[in-house]
Amino acid sequence: MASAAVCSARICGTKRLHLFDDDEYNCDFPSPYPSPVTKRRRFVPPGLERLQARFPNMEVAVLELALEECGGNIDAAIHRLCRLSLEEAPAAKPNPAAKISSDPPTQWVELLVEEMAKATSMDDAKSRAGKVLEALEKAVAQAAGKESKRRAEVMSRENSLLKRAVAILYERQKDKKEKEAESEALKKLVAEYQEKLKTLEANNFALSVHLSQALRGGSISGHCRPDVF
């Protein structure tokens, strides 16, 4: 019996020694595979960054828990986190006008839905909706002001071009009138010269007739006898 007990003790001691040796071996040479805890720390669930961008004031652990409870469904996690934010009811209510200035209409719709989801009561919802509508009105007015300014600049340029065109047309009309006046003066001068030419031609014809008559008279008088006179 004693020898059996000693043998069993030796076997147990040997097993314990082997167990300690294995632990010591594992401590000296750690496994290249990370532990489950290390995996959980390094693993980033898909959609977490989207939740962080949507809920920047919430802790990452809360976002991971909501995503895990919803089975990785991002829409369900967003709905749950919205309800959680409504339950918390923060005292500070940011002005929605600072979020969107000139974004497309879909951004305004998303902002309105987000503000309505954050509302804790009907009065809070009315207040948030009023702020969103006020911000939208300011953005529309600002955009309309920019458009009006752009149109005014375009109209100013067109007006300048129109003034230049009118000035050029006026100068052309003035030159045309001056040329027409010069043409009329030249026509009158030509008519006067034509009348003078006709007069000169008539006088010349008369002189030629008188000259021919005088020449004929001289030739006749040259054949007369001198004693007649």
Automatic annotation (TrEMBL):
Pfam families: CUE (PF02845). The keyword Acetylation does not apply. Residues 43-86 form the CUE domain. Transmembrane segments: none annotated. Keywords: Coiled coil. Residues 172-203 form a coiled coil. One of its GO terms (molecular function) is ubiquitin binding. This is CUE domain-containing protein. It comes from Linum trigynum.
